[in-house]
Amino acid sequence: MPNFHILTLFPEMVMQGLHTSILGRAVKSGTISIEAVNIRDYTTNKHGRVDDYTYGGGAGMLMQAQPVYDAYRSVVSRMEQKDDKNIKTRVIYTTPQGKIFCQEMAQELAGEEELIFLCGHYEGIDERVLQEIVTDEISIGDYVLTGGELPAMVMVDAIARLVPGVLHNEESAGTESFADGLLEYPQYSRPEIWHDRQVPQILLSGDHAKVDAWRLEQALIRTKERRPDLYEKYRKAHQAVEGKLTI
Ligand code: ADE
Question: Whose CA is nearest to atom 10 of ligand 1?
């Protein structure tokens, strides 16, 4: 079960967002734990500052090494006290310069016991502390946000929902987009006709094999149209196994 520790200057933002809905329920039931550690609480600056100008000049402020390192150490030393051993914890720095986050990475990280997220702000963080503590630099996409909190929340959500027990049966992680490399097929609920639009007849047939075949076909069509890159990947993998693909 992963314990998520988020080092941030905005703990309320993270806690509020991640203690709601499905993740809130999972925290309550003890399936996962999520804590936010306020980096500002660890500064030795008497005015509570955590940032300073960059050497060499240039616009903007940089988060300093000391408060980030001490916040990190507080989390690790608590773990060491609890487990009485040398823990190797992944420390993920959220940055547009990192590897792009994807479902496969979420799957891999869901198997970790402890995960520390480090959220940057301003112009970033002093390189020396990054070199010393960070194991993974991850971006959530090719755009720049004002801070690392939203990326950390995105990643925690994507990872946590893969932890056994976080989703209930009706929220299953197995059938949706990316679970098998395809986008999800279209879905319908009552009524049968809405605004003159009819639910596809096959879904009302009660023939599960036919429904499954239709859904796979729809997923393939959708993926080919919207994400040809994913479709190519799927096609290559499945051609090797089945020899052919109909779509
Ligand atoms: N911090 C700012 N922008 C980011 C992004 N796209 N991914 C991860 N961290 C970020």
Answer: 95
Q: Give backbone dihedrals phi and psi of 67, rounded to 5 degrees, phi first.
A: -65, -35
What structural domains and CATH numbers belong to the chain?
A: 3-160 (3.40.1280.10), 177-244 (1.10.1270.20)
Give the pLDDT confidence of 66-105 residue by residue, as tens digits.
999 999 999 999 999 987 666 779 999 999 999 999 999 9
Q: Whose CA is nearest to atom 5 of ligand 1?
A: 96
Atom of ligand 1 nearest to the CA of 148: 1
Does the predicted model carry a pTM greater than 0.90?
yes
139 lines ligand 1 (CB under 6 A): yes
Q: Are 155 and 94 in contact (CB under 8 A)?
A: yes
Name which residue sits closest to atom 7 of ligand 1, judged by CA: 139
Nearest CA among 114, 14, 120 for reference residue 67: 120
For ligand 1, whether the C-beta of 143 sits within 6 Å is yes
